[in-house]
Structures are given as structure tokens and as C-alpha cells.
Amino acid sequence: MTDLTSLTLAEARKGLADKTFTSLELTDAHLSAIEAARVLNAFVMETPDQARAMAREADAKIAKGEVGPLAGIPLGIKDLFATKGVRTTACSKILGNFVPTYESTVTSQLWRDGAVMLGKLNNDEFAMGSANETSCFGPVGNPWRREGSNTTLVPGGSSGGSASAVAALLCMGATATDTGGSIRQPAAFTATVGIKPTYGRCSRWGIVAFASSLDQAGPIARTTRDAAMLLRSMAGHDPKDTTSVDIPVPDYEAAIGKSVKGMKIGIPKEYRLDGMPAEIEKLWSEGAAWLKAAGAELVEVSLPHTKYALPAYYIVAPAEASSNLARYDGVRYGLREQGKNINELYENTRAEGFGAEVRRRVMIGTYVLSAGYYDAYYLRAQKVRTLIKKDFEDCFAKGIDAILTPATPSAAFGIGEKGGADPVEMYLNDIFTVTVNMAGLPGIAVPAGKDAQGLPLGLQLIGRPFDEETLFSLGEVIEQAAGRFTPARWW
Amino acid sequence: MSTATHKLLKGATGEWEMVIGMEIHAQVTSKSKLFSGASTAFGGEPNSQVSLVDAAMPGMLPVINEECVRQAVRTGLGLNAQINLRSVFDRKNYFYPDLPQGYQISQYKSPVVGEGEVIVDLDGGKTVTIGIERLHLEQDPGKMLHDRSPSLSYIDFNRCGVALMEIVSKPDIRDAEQAKAYVTKLRSIMRYLGTCDGDMEKGSLRADVNVSVRRPGAPLGTRCEIKNMNSITFIGQAIEYEARRQIEILEDGGQIEQETRRFDPNKGETRSMRSKEEAHDYRYFPDPDLLPLEFSQAFVDELKAKLPELPDQKKTRFVADLGLSAYDASVLVAERESAVFYETVLDRLDNRARDGKMAANWVINELFGRLNKEGRDITGSPVSAEQLSGIVDLIGEGTISGKIAKDLFEIVWQEGGDPRALVESRGMKQVTDLSAIEKVVDDIIAANPDKAAQVKDKPQSLGWFVGQVMKASGGKANPQSVNDLLKSKLGV
User: Which residues of B touch A325 (CB under 8 A)?
Assistant: First the structure.
């Protein structure tokens, strides 16, 4: 029955509805796959008992004809999402064995629609990273390898566990979060589809916060259609998150296969970086050609403030993070390292509990918010953010329906290869993705080809606020043209 | 109404003027907390009123409690202040165990309420106007309990997240009396509005007091802030002490260090808590979990239309409609409960135009005097508003004299009962029957021929006769009738 893991979510939905197999069989197949793929370190917590119980419940409902949109579909959950009764750590030592008494809004909507939880997925500590190397549970392996090489590559980050698990057929889809590219970059590194919806589309309630004004949940899946199905369940207004937006959730799946004829696709000249690898350039042109062939019109556009996005992002995100992470103080839950007085307790707990990258960002954030520096850094970065947002608004005001860019400046790299000496080398991974978070827009990464070493590359489509449907339609065109990519199993 | 002059302090080298500004923290009256649904009830078991948001569990988000916003707007309207239709919640970052989030959600650059003013009543009917700088909403922290264990501190998070209004005055206050009167007036306004119960013992109202001194008319001196005062009496004592301390330093050629101080009520002195250098850098920035707080002018107008009558308006009305003195009117309106009591008396009176002013005198002099003597407040008065209006009716219609009325008041205080029925059953009615009075008058004149003869030369001795007649009648004779009869009989 191992074939079951290679089905897409949409195919599995049909099989379950037709009673070709049961959710329990589907779930067991995935649990076996997870067990066999522990070397990838994608899961930090497997919940087989809960998975089987949920699968049986789904089967009972399917038997009664009560078929939820995701009935019986086994999923992986990024460890940033609070799961009731199941350890949730954000892959940080500081949360220790924290077990929430509550379920995040996004995951509770997945369970409402019948999905099955296989376990919790690895991620960069507090979602801070672009290679899934900062997790307290250790790095995640990318199921993709360079042709003829045994070197384990990173799956990208911070949703590295999600991307790796979906690409390695360990789960049919996964939840992820994206603050600066944490869904789209790992999707591009693993030939999966990842969408960061518009800020406010998914509730942030119950998701461990990194940078509140940038964080958004979204799915990573094997196909554009699967991602559309997952997002429909994950999205929606939540009165518990006042930044979530109260507009109806469309049937995203209906956008799959919809004609893109006459759509105006912007090609931003500022994304053509000096020294950009030729194969990225080629991929981008190919993507544009596919869209053109499908009837879309290509327009060169300008997003003049793009070059300021990354520096501004690395001020705003750490600033918010420094405040969001203040609650991990050893007083109420999680790790506590005793001290002679309260200040020592704080210092010892936070020094022991936070990894190097998290400490770095907390310090940067504290610095940029400090008296005397606030105006020069935080306030200025917020002004840049407004300008970036305006760049996009101007662009959409000219009738542009979506913008096509590369998803990442390179393919996946080896564990430990980047950022060791200079963290900025790692931060540059987010160069094409952070603008979207800064502007609060939806962005999708879809697999579009491979580099010379056989590693997957992705393209990014950026849409108007709350127009995820256009992204799904366009993503499907690329997927149809580029084909699907599955890694050869080596684990 | 006259504007008050303030007290100057005499130092060894001349006179000094105090400059005082206050930050009042007033707990918003609301069922649930500012950003969570947990109860705000006082006195619950420790940590029994704590939501996941209050405890700052991972992934929890604040949601604004609209009732707290309404209360802040109402209070702003009561302070004649600018209401800002758009304001912003900021995070004030610092580490302390009673602050689970590691930041307090407050309003820094854009408060919900801007500039306003309060007319403060001083002794002798004088007033002074104190400017309001701003009012903003913020979260209360939890409470540390240091006395449960020799080595550990415990924390009660019940208060954590309760809504506070921080009301910042302009540095318009000039002495301790004004400062005390300012807090009293603010408390009164908020009690009228029902936006803060003002209970200082329970911590519902706390004040930080900024004090500096200067030569009269000179530029502002360096200030010290006295933190967390929870008694109006202590506020007065702390200001007096702090001003004296600063004057001594300045007169000795020293300089005032800007610092935060604490008042020790046992020793009656202020002590340094932390210097300016030790002050926190709070790293304020807009809370990204919350949208800016925006509401319409219609929302404000609706709240404004439903505001109760406030003490200043009530005072003006009492003076204009009932002819009360400004002082009496301000005494009656100072506390909402007193005003309610007096207005209930007014409502029950048979003839409010005739007796309204007398009723005020009875409430202020007899009732408040007696309550003060016994250390009770108006809500625990043994004499109800209905009973008091009954007494005033009986005086006003001439059934009893003022003197008898005092006896009647005493009986009602001690024993209760309906005043009119008591007058009837105990024979306290004033005698207005002229023939009965005439007989007593004739008897007194007959018994005192010498004095009667002198009255023509010494008209002031008429009073002696009046007294004798009243005494003989047991106080029940109508004094006016006695006076008239005596005058005609004695030929005055």
C-alpha cells in the first residue's frame, strides 16, 4: 500500500470518497513512510496513536456520508502551531516540553474539515532561519540531492520540516508559516507548492509569534490544487485575531484550470540582480513564456524600493521578535534556569534556552527600538515599508494582475554551507520573498524546473491583496507546463 | 466663584512655589479585562481570573474590550477633553515577573483622549482649573506576593490585564491642598460617570505625583516623581515633605536630582527608588497585534448624549434653580451619593421652591454633621431621604419649629419612623391656636409686671418674653404668633 503516499491530496480525496481505501490505510502508509525517513529529521514529534484515532473517526464519518473537505487526509503540522495536548516548542529549547491546553485556529479548522494529524514538523527556532539549521532538534535533510552527490542539502527554512516531509511523501500536505519567505523558499528548494496568503487571511491565534505584522500561515503541498484545497480550510476570519480580515473565503480550487487569458503579468526589473545565476534568469524567462503561451500579457514593471526591502525587513522583524519573545522568561512555563535573583533567572534562562540566531535577532531588535536609535532604524524601516507597499499598489493600479519573479536566488545548498561567517549571506536567501511580507500581499512559489545539478527551482507569483485565486490559476499554468518533480528516494 | 491663591512655602532665603503634576491610574469599571475575557472582580482566589492571553501563553493575541474604550471616552468627555477618533496601542517593554508578556500594552504617542480640564473646588467655595494633558488606556500588571515564603515570591495574575486609565495632568497644581482637591474631583467625576469606582484602598485609584519647586514666577525646577500613592491624605503629606526636602537642598546650594521616589507613610518621608540613569528604556513601538483604535464621531456623540449630569453642572443648577450658595452646592455635589440623596429629598418635598434651600441646610448641617460625628457615610445614613424630606415639609408648612425639628430628627435617627406620624403621636405639633398662645402670653406678662413696663424703653427685652412663652409652651408655640401677640400686648 506504499503507493498511497504518492497520491496527491486531490487523488486521495477521490480514493477515500470512492472507498478505494480507508483513511486508516492512508494514514498507516504515511506513518510507515515517516518511520522510514527519520534520517530526514522532518518530524520532531510523531503522533501515530492520535493519527490513527483521527483516521478511524474520519472513516466512520465517510461511511455515514459526512465527508468534510479534507476528510481522512493525513497532514503534518509545523511545530509553531499550538496543538492541544501535543508538545509544541517552536523548535526552541526555551519552550522545553510545553504542551498547550489550546489548539490554534488554523489547525482546529483543518480538524473541523476532517484532516488527520501525523505529527509536528521541524522548523527553524521560532521560525528564524532560511535553512532549518537553527532548530533545537537539529537540521532537516532535503530529500533532493545534487546529481551524483551524497551531500545532504538543507530544505530551506523556516518551514523546512514541512517542505521536506511533503516532498519526501511523508504527509499529503503541511501547515507552514511565512514571515519573510519561510513558506515559499523551502517550497522552491523541494519542488513543492507553497503559498503565503494575504496578511489577515489566516488567523494567527495559537501560532507562536515571530514578527506579528509579517507572520502568516499557509500550506505547503505537492500541487497547486492541493495547496488551494488546504488554504480553503486554513483561511477565514477569527474574532480572536483582530488583524484577521472578515471577508468570505472563496473556493480556491475553482480557480485551478481557470483561463489566465488577458491577464497582465508584471515582470519587475529590480528583481534582475547583478550576478544572478544564468539558470535562474532562464527559469524566469521560461515561466514568463509559459504564461504568455497561456494567453497572459507580459509587462515590465518597476518596484523601485525593492533594494531597501531586505535591510528594512531585518529591522522590523527582529524589533517585533525582541518584544514577542520577551514572554519566554522562565517564570510561568518552559525552561527555567535558576539564578540568585530574578535578573539572573532571566539571563540564565534566556541564554540557555535561545539559540545563537534567536539571540542575535533579539539583540538586533532590542537595539533598533532603543531610545536614540528608534527613529534612525525602526521608524525609517517602517517608512521604507510604506514605500514598498506603495510600489506594489502603483503597479496593481496600472492593471497588473500578478507579478512573476524567481522564488530564490539559488537552489538548495548544503547543511552548514552558508551563513557560518556572515549571517547576511543567509539572509540574502529571502531577497525575492520579503517584499511580499512587507507589503502584506499573497505570494505563491511553484516548482518550475531544475538547475544544472538537478536541484529544483521555483518561481514566485505575487498577487493583489486577497486575490489568491489568480495566483492559483497562474500557478497551475506553470505546473502544467513545467511538470511535477519528485526526488529519488535515498533515505 | 473666585479663583484661589495658592500656598507658598517659606524657606530660609525667601518664598518658594511648588509646581505639581499628577498621573492618576484609575481602574476602568468593566466586567472583563482590557484585552481578554477574564473577570475583573476584586478579591478572587489568586490566579482564578487569568485567561491564556493574560498569562501570555505562546500564540495568544489581545482583543480590545469595547466597553473599556467606551468608559475611557466617557471619562474624556467628563474631563471636557479632546476625544481622538484614532489612537494607537503601543508596547512598553520591560522585564518583571508580574508582567507575563514582557511588555505592557499602553498608548504612548497617540492616546485615546487628549487635552481637557477639570475645575477643582477648594475651601471656601473657591475653584482652580487644572489642565489635563491626556488620558490613555493600558493594562494593569499582576501582583507580587513576597510574604508567602522566605525564599520565593509568588505572583497573582488576577489583576493582570485589567484596564487602567492613566490620566496625566498638566503641571498646573501649586500646593498640596490643590493636589488633594484635584484627586478628589477626578474621583468624583469618574464615580458620577460610573467609569471608575475610585476605591483607593483596593487600588482602583493610584497616583504618581511629580513635585518641583521654584522661586515664584521663575522657570520650572527639576522634578521628582513620587510613585504609587493610594491615599489622598498621603498625597498631601508626601508633597509637603518633598517640597521641603527640595527647598532645603536648594537653599544649601545643592541641586535636585531627577529621580523616582517612594513615600513611607509611617515615617512621613519620601525615599529614593531609582535615579534617572537607572530609568528603563521601554522601547515603545506600536503593538503589531492590534489595529489602531478607530471610532466615529457618532460613537462619541452617542456616549455624550447619554452622559449623566456631572458635579459641575449639578452645582450650577443648584445655585441657579434653588438659590443655594456656591459652597453649599459644591458640598452637596462633591460625592455622587450625597447629590443623589439631596435630590431624592428634593423630589419628595411638598414645596420644593419654598423648602429646597432649607433642605440643603438640613442635609449639610444636621445630616452630614451627624454622620461625620459617627464616622458614617451617606449610604449608611439611619435617616432616609424620604424621612428627611418629611421633616423639612413639617418645618416649611409651619407644623413644627426648627427647634422641635431637631428633636424630631434625633428621634428618627434613633428610632426611625414616619416624621409626620411621630409629630402627631408625640404631640410635637406647633401651637398656632392664638387663644391658647394668648393665655400663656397674658400669664407671663401678669407674672412679670416690672419687665413688662420696661419693654417700651428697652425693645430688645422683648426677646426675653418670647423665650419665656416658648419655654412655657414646650417649644410648640408658633414663634411668629408669639412675637406678634407680645408686641401688641406690650405696645411695642
Answer: 102
Q: Structure pTM? A: 0.92
- Mean pLDDT for each consecutive 10-residue tract of chain A (491 residues)? 85 95 98 98 98 98 93 98 98 97 98 98 98 98 97 97 98 98 98 98 98 98 98 98 98 98 98 90 97 98 97 98 98 96 96 98 97 96 98 98 97 92 87 97 98 97 98 98 96 95
The 3-class SS string of chain A reads: CHHHHHCCHHHHHHHHHCCCCCHHHHHHHHHHHHHHCHHHCCEEEECHHHHHHHHHHHHHHHHCCCCCCCCCCEEEEECCECECCECCCCCCHHHCCCCCCCCCHHHHHHHHCCCEEEEEECCCHHHCCCCCCCCCCCCCCCCCCCCCCCCCECCCCCCHHHHHHHHCCCCCEEEEEECCCCCHHHHHHHCCEEEECCCCCCCCCCECCCCCCCCEEEEEECCHHHHHHHHHHHCCCCCCCCCCCCCCCCCHHHHCCCCCCCCEEEEEHHHCCCCCCHHHHHHHHHHHHHHHHCCCEEEEECCCCHHHHHHHHHHHHHHHHHHHHHHCCCCCCCCCCCCCCHHHHHHHHHHHHCCHHHHHHHHHHHHHCCCCCCHHHHHHHHHHHHHHHHHHHHHHHCCCCEEEEECCCCCCCECCCCCCCCHHHHHHHHCCCHHHHHHCCCEEEEEEEECCCCCEEEEEEEECCCCHHHHHHHHHHHHHHHCCCCCCCCC
Instruction: Identify the closest residue of chain B to A340 by CA–CA distance.
Output: B151
Topology of the domain covering A10-262+402-482: Amidase signature (AS) enzymes (3.90.1300)
B291 contact residues in A (CB cutoff 8 A): 242-243
Q: Angle at which helices B352-361 and B336-348 pack, to 10 degrees? A: 140
CB-neighbour burial class of residue A150 (10 A; exposed 0-12, middle 13-18, buried 19+): exposed
ipTM of this complex: 0.96
**Residue B220 to residue B19: CA distance in whole angstroms:** 8
Cβ contact, residue pair B59, A98, below 8 Å: no
Q: For residue B377, give how far its alpha carbon lies from the nearest alpha carbon of chain A (Å).
A: 43
Domain boundaries, chain A: 10-262+402-482, 307-379
All residues of chain B having their beta carbon less than 8 Å from the beta carbon of residue A82 are 57-59
- Is residue A6 flagged as an active site residue? no
Those residues whose C-beta lies under 8 Å from the C-beta of residue A442, and which sit 6 or more positions away, are: A195, A196, A197, A198, A201, A436, A462, A463, A464, A465, A466, A467, A468, A471
Which residue in A59, A55, A70, A58 sits closest to A9, CA to CA?
A: A70
Q: How many whole angstroms from its chain centre is CA B481?
A: 44
